[in-house]
Design brief:
- The chain has about 70 residues and is α+β, with helices and mostly antiparallel strands.
- About 25% of the residues lie in helices and about 15% in strands.
- A two-stranded antiparallel sheet has the order 1-2.
- Strand 1 and strand 2 form a beta hairpin.
- The chain starts with 10 loop residues before the first helix and ends with a helix.
């Protein structure tokens, strides 16, 4: 990283992400504290799975209903 906060992205990673000169990326912090680098494509599907926590029980419709009526 440079003193101005610029990073060098390796060729293989640029190819995998479809990045070219001038491309923008987003750094997303995951629940476990790690970060994920995503190309800024403005496609909501790029965010799929980012909030998944395997240790959290899935919320049911009954749970949602009871939380709204409380």
């Amino acid at each position: 990283m440079t003193s101005r906060g610029r990073l060098t992205v390796p060729n293989e990673m640029r190819a995998d992400l479809g990045l070219a000169a001038g491309s923008k990326v987003t750094f997303v912090r995951l629940v476990n504290g790690e970060y994920r680098v995503l190309p800024r494509t403005h496609n909501v599907m790029d965010l799929a799975g980012l909030l998944y926590d395997p240790n959290r029980r899935a919320k049911t419709l009954d749970d949602e209903h009871s939380s709204q009526t409380s």
